[in-house]
Design brief:
242 residues; 3 helices; alpha+beta; two-stranded antiparallel ribbon; 9 strands
């Protein structure tokens, strides 16, 4: 005697592995359909969707890095803009792949084919995202190098400006001895150049006394003592004209 049970009285299945249902093929024949195949296709769709989401996050991060590099220095703006554009393109492709994965979930019988296509699309998106990140990193390094160079040039310019200001604040002047006095940067003080600051012919004059045949020199009081030098060992007379 066959004992019948209601479906509601049967125990619940804990897994789709090994389970089958009845379906009809294109020839209108009754066939056995594996629920495990449908579950595998669904799992592939879920994984493809998650991969698409992860790729979207990576692409968004690449776009953020590109924008940051753009703001760092104007010299790197072109490369940063290119990287940002690549990241945006990758984001759009990711959204498209995600949409395809969602549509694949609505049609379980086409899930396997859609998952393969999504996987191929994700590989391309992943490559584009990695390239975008690499370009953004190059742009950031380039901007940093330019920033260091600009900072160095700025420091050198400031040093030269400080020196120029120091000399502008300490103009040469005529000292009490009639010589030019100029500012010495290393000593931080004025020094005597030994060069006369007054114009005109104020060099000494020479004459010979016929009585003793001696050479005599006369000069005005304004002539600097450093202008004339007599070498007693050689008997030579030197004239320092600066």
């Amino acid at each position: 005697m066959i004992k019948k049970k209601k479906i509601s009285e049967l125990p619940l299945a804990q897994s789709l592995v090994g389970l089958f249902t009845i379906g009809v093929d294109a020839a209108n024949r009754s066939v056995k359909v594996s629920l495990e195949f449908i579950k595998t296709a669904y799992d592939n769709v879920v994984k493809a969707t998650q991969d698409a989401i992860n790729a979207t996050k990576s692409a968004n991060a690449a776009a953020s890095n590109a924008n940051t590099a753009k703001l760092t220095a104007e010299g790197a703006a072109a490369k940063a803009t290119t990287a940002a554009a690549n990241a945006i393109t990758a984001t759009n492709e990711t959204k498209d792949a995600t949409g395809k994965a969602i549509l694949a979930a609505d049609a379980a019988d086409k899930a396997a084919d859609s998952a393969i296509k999504a996987h191929d699309g994700l590989e391309k998106i992943k490559d584009d995202a990695e390239k975008a990140i690499e370009e953004a990193d190059k742009a950031a390094k380039f901007a940093n190098e330019k920033g260091v160079y600009a900072n160095t040039q700025g420091n050198q310019a400031k040093t030269q400006a400080d020196r120029a200001k120091q000399y502008a604040d300490h103009q040469p002047y005529m000292g009490e001895n009639g010589n030019w006095w100029k500012w010495d940067e290393e000593k931080g003080a004025y020094i005597d150049t030994g060069i006369l600051a007054k114009g005109g012919v104020i060099y000494p004059t020479f004459s010979i006394d016929e009585k003793d045949m001696g050479l005599y020199m006369s000069f005005d009081d304004e002539v600097s003592p450093n202008l004339i030098k007599f070498d007693q060992s050689s008997g030579e007379l030197y004239l320092n004209v600066g």
